[in-house]
Specification:
The chain is α/β, with parallel strands linked by helices. The chain is built from nine helices and ten strands. Helix content is 38%, strand content 25%. Helix 3 packs parallel to helix 5 and helix 4 crosses helix 5.
């Protein structure tokens, strides 16, 4: 049974069709990597999954439960509940500057009473150890490098125990020397219990971590398959041209 099913999602902004009938499914423990040029619809797709945008058409299901279907009105509370199925790590960290590292990680689960204060404290410390930041619990965002801030953001997303963890270009705001540390953490999260959707421009990382690769172009899935199929034997001319350009870059 798929953890995530996306069926015929369409999204337009004004007269601009950004997503045109996008469908895919993802099994538990799989990592889906989405690649494509700027403007291909990758980020809009992630924002639809996380209910930061509302699709015009289509369905979104998690563990066979329909979270979105066209024509249904959703209250703010329902939208908030739907978001809890997904964790989203943004490009620019979005940490709260007034809170230290541990407080950033624990804020949402504390507000939602996900456990006792003692349990949450331990969970937060365990997650920060997992991303290599045990020594930064009481540091503030301004005291951290970009790579460290992004690792805090990953721990914060994990703290909500989402069914699907989403990354939107998680290294695009980082200097090259900091990119590797974040990619290593994401790669280290891969397990039978961790289902992830990663939008990235890092092709070697995509090849090494993905179970399924989607290449998006002009709002559609131009090609989908295993890393070997998409990277080593692409069928679409658009995919071939994109990968050639990425290698040249």
């Amino acid at each position: 049974m798929p953890v995530l099913e996306v069926k015929n999602i369409k999204k337009s902004f004004g007269k601009t069709k950004v997503l045109k009938d996008v469908s895919f499914s993802l099994e538990k423990g799989q990592v889906l990597v989405i690649i494509g040029s700027s403007g291909s619809g990758k980020t809009t797709l992630l924002r639809c999954l996380n209910f930061l945008e509302t699709p015009d058409e289509g369905q979104i299901l998690v563990n066979s439960k329909t979270l979105f279907t066209p024509g249904q009105k959703y209250t703010d509370e329902q939208i908030r509940e739907n978001r809890l199925h997904f964790g989203l790590v943004f490009q620019n960290f979005n940490l709260f500057p007034q809170y230290n590292v541990l407080q950033n990680v624990l804020l949402a689960p504390t507000l939602l009473k996900k456990g006792t204060p003692e349990q949450l404290q331990q969970q937060g410390k365990d997650l920060l150890e997992r991303v290599g930041l045990s020594d930064k619990l009481e540091s503030y965002p301004y005291q951290l490098s970009g790579g460290q801030q992004q690792r805090v953001a990953i721990a914060r997303a994990l703290a909500m125990q989402p069914e699907v963890l989403c990354f939107d270009e998680p290294t695009s705001a980082l200097d090259p020397e900091l990119t590797g540390e974040v990619l290593r953490v994401i790669k280290g999260l891969k397990s039978a219990d961790s289902t992830m959707v990663v939008v990235t421009h890092e092709m070697e990382f995509a090849r090494s971590v993905a179970d399924v690769v989607i290449y998006m172009a002009d709002g559609v899935i131009e090609e989908m398959g295993t890393p070997e199929q998409v990277f080593d034997n692409p069928q679409s001319e658009k995919t071939k041209a994109f990968l050639h350009g990425a290698q040249s870059f």
